[in-house]
Amino acid sequence: MNLEETARKIRTMEIRGAGRIARHAAKALYTHSMEGESSDLASYCQRMNEAADLLISTRPTAVSLPNAINLVMKPLKYETDVLSARQNLEERAMAFVKRSEEAVSRIGTIGARHIRDGDVILTHCNSEAALSCILKAHKQGMNIEVYATEVRPRNQGHITAKTLSDAGVRTNFIVDSAARYFMKEVDLCITGADAITVNGSVINKIGTSQIALAAHEARVSFLVAAETYKFAPCTILGERILIEERSPDEILSPEMRGTLPNVTVRNPTFDITPADYVDLIITEAGVYPPEMAYTVIREQLHWDNEDMISDLPYCEEE
Ligand code: RUB
User: Fold this and answer.
1) Residues near 46 by beta carbon (within 8 Å), at least 6 away in sequence
2) Alpha carbon distance 177, 191 (integer Å)
3) What is the pairing mode between strands 270-273 and 202-205?
4) Cβ atoms within 10 A of the Cβ of 235, count?
5) Ligand 1 centre from 109 Cα, in Å?
6) Which residue among 58, 91, 106 closes a domain?
7) What is the Cβ-side half-sphere exposure of residue 215, based on CA atoms within 13 angstroms?
8) Cβ atoms within 10 Å of 219's Cβ, excluding its own
9) How far is CA 253 from the centre of its chain?
10) Residue 23's CATH number
11) Whether residues 149 and 241 fall in one domain
12) What is the residue range of 15's domain?
């Protein structure tokens, strides 16, 4: 898949989910580097910077995207010749893809330790990292049952239900608004994350914060499964994560909206769950309470590198 095709598919959500978006962006940079004809370093850098900008512009919330691009692109500025620049960038891109795949698998192993035989688990949206924990527990022979939400308006819950069903996991498929109703039957909630701020707030699919609130009220644990590259270094500098708002067409057709002249349809794609409602964040580097987000950013993302701080272009004001 070339750069433009990847960018289009991320924008239209054919490629979706924070981890997948990051891996596809890294692969697109790899392909773009391989396919290019730049004979000098300056034109190669310009070409790759334009590619990075295009990828960054596709979706604004998942921090995995700028973090992946950052990891692949940033060392370019220290290169002195085009041949090694290309080779090193391509190696970094493929290393990121490998690291990301391994992280999801490792999160499954670590996350399964927090699931007990007989647990009923609620999950929201379609998260590879959250599913990795659930599927690992199932593979280990635990008798678990899952509540999977529908996830209006894009119905990502259908993918989750299909994955769980194919794996033989007993699954209840519910509308989003039924989450609180069923919470009394749930032992544990596990969701993924698109971004985690320095104060431990979790940005994930719209509706996540309501589920966390219902879990808190029912004294049900709320765990977040997320690779370390979902943590947002820019939030250390006080920046906020931009919450994507998608087209109202995803909720009501233009024809239907035409009959409702006084109605504005709002379609925020993600919401923010404050750290108070998150019990634990499961990463490939181990589990952390949300209060330790700063440590994760510092130790796992090496944020204190001057360059990284000085020109982080990837977070915008809410
Ligand atoms: C996907 C979503 C997922 C996170 C984590 O939203 O909110 O829960 O991205 O997923 P969308 P993963 O469908 O709008 O991209 O664990 O797979 O990275």
Assistant:
1) none
2) 16
3) antiparallel
4) 21
5) 20
6) 106
7) 27
8) 7
9) 28
10) 1.20.120.420
11) yes
12) 3-106
Contact residues of ligand 1, CB 6 A cut-off:
16-19, 62, 125, 127-129, 156, 191-194, 204-205, 269
From 10, 110, 149, 194, the mutation candidate for ligand 1 (largest count of ligand atoms within 8 A of CB) is: 194
Selection from 36, 21, 31, 33 nearest residue 76 by Cα: 33
Which residues are identified as catalytic? Answer: 125, 194
Same domain, 31 and 180: no
Q: Is the Cβ–Cβ distance between 192 and 127 less than 8 Å?
A: yes
Establish if 202 belongs to a structural domain.
yes
Q: Side chain identity at 175, as an amino acid letter?
A: V
pLDDT at 302: 78
Distance separating alpha carbons of residues 43 and 85, to the nearest angstrom: 12
CA atoms of 179 and 74, how far apart (whole Å): 42
DSSP labels, the chain: --HHHHHHHHHTTSS-SHHHHHHHHHHHHHHHHHH----SHHHHHHHHHHHHHHHHTS-SS-THHHHHHHHHHGGGGG--SHHHHHHHHHHHHHHHHHHHHHHHHHHHHHHHTT--TT-EEEE-S--HHHHHHHHHHHHTT---EEEEE--TTTTHHHHHHHHHHHHT-EEEEE-GGGHHHHGGG-SEEEE--SEE-TT--EEEETTHHHHHHHHHHTT-EEEEE--GGGB-GGGGGT--PPPPB--GGGTS-HHHHHT-TT-----B-EEEE-GGG--EEEETTEEE-GGGHHHHHHHHS-TT-HHHHHT-------
- pLDDT for 29: 98
The separation between CA 186 and the C-alpha centre of its own chain, rounded to angstroms, equals 24
Mean pLDDT for back-to-back runs of 10 residues, the chain (318 residues): 96 98 98 90 95 97 96 93 96 97 98 98 98 98 98 98 98 98 98 98 98 98 98 92 97 97 98 98 98 94 60 40
Which token pair is 32?
């773009």
Distance 254 CA to ligand 1 centre (A): 27
